Amino acid sequence: MQSLTNTMQAVPLNNYILLSAIIFSIGVIGVLIRRNAIVIFMSVELMLNAVNLLLAAFSVYRGDATGQVFVFFIMALAAAEVAIGLAIIVMIYRNTNSIDINVLNRLKW
Questions:
Q1: Are the C-beta atoms of 37 and 52 separated by less than 8 Å?
Q2: Residue 36 pairs with which residues in a beta bridge?
Q3: What's the pTM value of the predicted model, to 2 decimals?
Q4: I want to staple 103 with a disulfide (CB 3.0 to 4.6 A). Which of 50, 73, 84, 98 is the partner?
Q5: 3-state class of 108 per DSSP?
Q6: 57 and 16 in contact (C-beta within 8 Å)?
């Protein structure tokens, strides 16, 4: 475990911040631009993974395991979100034969 800590501390924290910002930005762009429900869920997962990477990097740099505990809870939340989200997408596809977000106007009152 000590070698992993030394390896992570050899890379500057700014690199982790930059990588997380890039991954998070790709996720935000995917949510805003794409209309496919599956791509939107994948973009949300990208954003959660960017936050996880940043929390883990800060946790190692501070020498505190609190960030890694938050990463565990975020991963559990992401797994639940994927399960419920995919179930919703399957039900929408069964009703509309499409997973396009613009087709969902038929679900309004």
A1: no
A2: 100
A3: 0.78
A4: 98
A5: coil
A6: yes
